[in-house]
Amino acid sequence: MTMKIGNIEIKTPIFLAPMSGYTNQPFRRLCKQFGAGVVYTEFTNAIGIIRENDKTLRTLSFTEEERPIGIQIFGNDADNLARSALYIQENFSPDFIDINFGCPSPKVTKKGGGSAILKDVNKVRKIIEKVVHVVDLPVTVKMRSGWDHDSIVYRDVAMAVEFAGVRAVTLHPRTTKQMFKGKANWDHIAEIKEQLSIPVIGNGDIHCADDIHKMFEQTGCDGVMIGRAAIRKPWIFSEYLASLGKMEWKLSTREEIFAIIQQHIEYAKEHLGDRVGGRALRPHIIHYLKGFPGASDFRRKISKLQNASEIAKFFQDVSNFLENRDK
Ligand SMILES: Cc1cc2nc3c(=O)[nH]c(=O)nc-3n(C[C@H](O)[C@H](O)[C@H](O)COP(=O)(O)O)c2cc1C
Fold it and tell me: Is the per-residue pLDDT at 193 higher than 80?
């Protein structure tokens, strides 16, 4: 099963969702290693890019091994989004540029960005027309179903963006007001798949390989995007590939999970350095530890650690401790 975004061939149409605070370079590399077909940067403010803010630009760099990769931008102004898209094309050359119409965070929506744009389909159209006009790279959109139950707009927005030249749409079928509550309504994904000729990527509430199969079957979507489950278990991509018989994969022991965590720590040191890498790792480690005996105690200790080397040593000590205890 393959799909295309513009001319970019996607061999495994299983996407790692863009996630602010998580989908940095070390994590993308880890997910790629487990078989993620496509990865994205964290969403990036168009204005930060235009102003060439150092910290912002650093989050946009990636290595060739990460391809196909999308850089995701957000903002509320068509000109700024178009200028930032052109800057990205000229300076980073990702495989595609994704525009965020899905972020529900008040920090973004209060300024009219993210999913607040869904309130105005005309504005959506204008943004896409401008961006598509200035870049040659394929432009994609990631969106929610609407602002709230009284303004469900995914059908209109999907049609408008296809007409304006977008090359793929990802739908997380919840409203902004829902945030992450309730269930993602996969019927919305099935509906736009029927409606559009461009590829549709379904997103929302994938917990395991079986859910990926179900989403393909129930919605007919072209690709499936995984968010929170990949934070808990970046090996979910391998689980899926193994379920297709494309590889052998079984994660059975605690030692194997600890080895993956150590690998993640190594990548963080390599790409971000010891200090920044340590900071970037902390939220991930908390997720990895969920369900482990003594997790809350570990969490408290980890919150005091400053850099990646300290986190690596901590894990080694925990691993030794658990091994001795189980003997
Ligand atoms: C911590 C976190 C950060 C997120 N950041 C972004 C982001 O930067 N851009 C975006 O389009 N969506 C973002 N999302 C939404 C996810 O991409 C995805 O749509 C959502 O989590 C639903 O998928 P899931 O049920 O597989 O988690 C974020 C979600 C989480 C949990």
Answer: yes
